[in-house]
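ok so i was messing around last nite and threw this chain in just to see what happens. nothing serious, just curious
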Amino acid sequence: MHRYDDENVLQLYLSIKDSNEPMVNEIQRNAVDLLTGMARNGNSEAGIALEDLARAPMVHPLLREQIRSVIGTQVRAR
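result:
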């Protein structure tokens, strides 16, 4: 995992990654949307977080697809 200096990026990353629920929830979807907006506004750490999440095995497959569609590339699993 990349070390995130931006506390907002870190908290959004963790809200997506560390969910123990079997289903995708609204908080996770909103966190992806917020990271996307931050990345589009020039926050490079938000973009890195999205790329990391696209490769993370513990992220729900539906969220991973949402993230991959945002970053515009198929990211290989680690």
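not much to say yet. The radius of gyration is 11 Å.
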